[in-house]
Amino acid sequence: MRKLELKFLNEEGRIVTYTLDHPVEPVDSETVQEAMDTILQENALYSTGGELTEIHSARIVERIVEDIEL
Question: Are the beta carbons of 35 and 18 closer than 8 angstroms?
């Protein structure tokens, strides 16, 4: 399953990651940037280390699991 990770810095300078399952493919970097800007402007998300202060990064993560017959 592919996931979209949005990474922000909070008031403590820590990286805060929000993960979204099943992102729209193909991922458009401009749309992701706009969404992250909106999250910051609207103060839409909060972390235990305080408000989000800036965008750190974004990435697609894919995890493949293969069971082993024993």
Answer: no
Query: CA 56, 12, 37, 24 torsion: positive or negative?
Result: positive
Token output for 24: 């729209």
Q: How far apart are CA 7 and CA 1, in angstroms?
A: 19
User: DSSP letters along 33-47, please?
Assistant: HHHHHHHHHHT--EE
Query: Which residue in the block uniquely carries the two structure tokens 């991922």?
Result: 27
**What digits encode the pLDDT tens for the residues 49-67?**
999 999 999 999 999 889 9
Model confidence, pTM: 0.86
Cα distance between residue 14 and residue 51, in whole Å = 11
